[in-house]
Design a protein that fits this description.
2 copies of one chain form a homodimer.
Chain A (H helix, E strand, L loop, with lengths): L12 E4 L3 H11 L5 E4 L3 H9 L4 E2 L8 E4 L3 H14 L4 E4 L5 H7 L10 E4 L20 E5 L6 H13 L3 E4 L2 H24 L14 H7 L6 H10 L1 H21 L6 H15 L12 E9 L4 H11 L4 E8 L5 E9 L3 H10 L4 E2 L1
Parallel strand pairs in A: 1-2, 1-4, 2-3, 4-5, 7-8
Antiparallel strand pairs in A: 6-7, 9-11, 9-12, 10-11
Chain lengths: ~350, ~350
């Protein structure tokens, strides 16, 4: 992606669907003084969105510059096609998390050259217009997926929308998008679920041995099943293609376990290590570049705040922070990453303030 | 596990192997004024451990009360058997992370009634005597695995050892231990590896869509391959048994994807959700009990410390904290968990101090 300065978004933007995403788009655009009109099949949702400052209600004479369709996935294609027909001068986009299905339907609709799909990679555990936030998209990727009929001006308008709400627009084809989210989101979700499902076989004290690794790998398995049933169903082919490759590797691991030859297991383990190093962000290569300081934090009010205050006073800059809650004891273990070489001075500073801190 | 008050650990404790674990045992026991003697095949390791205060060097007349064998896994059985023979009045334990192999060998040795194996669930990305810490075991589970010949007094001594170093002793049979760690540690490691391995297939902008879910599920896949080759090899049967059940579920998911019937996928997803709820600690059921506040943190020196100071001054107690580093922008997103109902007041406090904070 490249850094593009947001242009002024022309004319009124009509947001159809005042859920979390639609309301957040309205709030974020209003913060840039864009004229926003909001609409929803439920008048109560419009009322809340308007009251929260996400835009003004729809009137008959409106000629929108851009229509943002933020309705549930099952309704998206229909509402996009209706919008292209009703407002023949408007660009239209949607926010559906799997792209190819919508793209296939809309490409057959009149006005398809004015349509560019999109998928903001942002969400919340809450939903509805009350959960909307002007900052929801800040720093998040926003996939923008033009089709073959798409007019360049339509693509510009949707990239501009993503930039205005603070997101990072990433232009890719629908098919590439769906393959990418299968890889980075849908398959990890299935793998987390499969790992967590086995915990139901635990007996006796088995789970008392749980550590942070188990908690990290299974965190997303706690997500809403109905939502994931939808997502996996809509992106079934791409998810299955990746899962079949996972099964090949799994079969190789199962076959290699207990054999004297370490080559296969070693290959798979190394392939996993290489994979983690490809993930953008501080992950992966970080371990070598920082000192890790561990601090015991009692599980009682005020302890974490007190740790933060004492860490702040130490004058050491914090690169990263994790908190693990331990079993069996009213204590958690904080892991503070600081620049290479300053770990010991943070340990000293915290120890002198009464903390149990160590490298 | 039950809360047991640590008794006074009698007589000298001999630690054989001055690596991370052995040195940490010595340091932790010395903090309770237990007489500790340290030994290692490498005299330089003994020197460092002694200099760090982990104990005194071995002399010929020693009659240890307890011998802690903290040598590499491949040498453990031999050193345990030698120790049982050389010190006929001593209890002996080891710290090997897969239990059944050592147990099988040692049960045939003379003096096996004085042996109780153990596995402290603690580690560090660093190794050797310089990495040792008196706090390494604080709040961590320490599996204690008596065999059929084990004398009750030997079990008491090793439970007492775990309590003295601040760990939570969990008594279980070797076979149960190995099955448990396959479930909560070894299989999650393989699943994380298999997920990360697929990222090598990414093309173009695919990984630009990565989010915190991917980073969490693949974090442990970055671990040392040689270490995991050893662990998986030693616990091959238990790991394979669980992975075969994972493969059954995976086959069901692959078969169900793209079918109109949601029953199978729904079952697997729900099974995963139930599994996460079984993990001890704050994980799983937490989402419903806290307010989550999101704060943008610029990726520059001092920002996290400033956030901590401002959060501390707000007077709101922090339940949990996560930091996600985002791609494409010099900004991270902090997620702060606070008690239900006080999220808005933290948002207000941080906003008034110039932060971009939202629920």
């Amino acid at each position: 992606m490249t850094a593009i300065a947001p242009k002024a978004l022309d004319g009124p933007v009509l947001v159809i669907g005042c859920g979390l995403i639609g309301t957040s788009v309205g709030l974020a655009l209003r913060a840039h003084d864009v004229d926003v009109v909001v609409h929803d099949a439920l008048p109560a949702n419009v009322e809340i969105a308007v009251a929260r400052g996400a835009g003004r209600p729809l009137d008959d004479g409106l000629e929108p510059y851009l229509v943002v369709v933020a309705v549930p996935p099952t309704a998206a294609s229909t509402v996009v096609a209706e919008s292209l027909a009703r407002w023949p001068a408007a660009f239209v986009t949607d926010v559906t998390s799997v792209r190819s299905g919508v793209q296939r339907v809309v490409e057959l609709a009149p006005g398809a050259d004015r349509f560019v799909g999109g998928h903001p990679m942002a969400g919340s555990e809450r939903s509805g217009p009350t959960a909307g936030s002007a900052q929801l998209f800040e720093g998040r990727p926003w996939a923008v997926t033009p089709g073959s009929p798409t007019r360049p001006a339509a693509l510009d308008a949707v990239v501009d929308l993503a930039l205005h709400v603070g997101a990072v627009p990433i232009i890719m084809e629908s098919a590439a998008h769906d393959r990418a989210v299968a890889l980075v989101s849908h398959v990890p979700q299935v793998m987390s679920t499969l790992t967590a499902a086995r915990l139901n076989d635990a007996v006796g004290n088995d789970l008392a041995l749980s550590g942070p690794g188990l908690r990290d790998t299974t965190r997303i398995a706690a997500s809403d099943s109905a939502l994931w049933l939808d997502i996996l169903g809509t992106n079934a082919d791409d998810v299955r293609a990746v899962l079949e490759l996972v099964r090949d590797d799994l079969d190789r691991v199962i076959g290699a376990l207990g054999q004297d030859d370490d080559a296969v297991l070693g290959q798979v383990l190394e392939s996993g290590r290489r994979g983690t190093a490809l993930i953008p962000g501080k992950h992966g290569s970080q371990a070598a570049r920082v000192d890790l300081v561990h601090v015991q934090v009692a599980d009682q009010p005020g302890e974490l705040s007190r740790l933060w205050a004492d860490t702040g006073e130490s004058g050491v800059n914090i690169e990263d922070f994790r908190l693990d809650h331990d079993l069996g004891r009213p204590v958690g273990l904080a892991e503070i990453a600081v620049a290479l070489g300053v770990g010991d001075s943070l340990v000293d500073a915290l120890t002198s303030r009464g903390w149990t801190a160590y490298r």
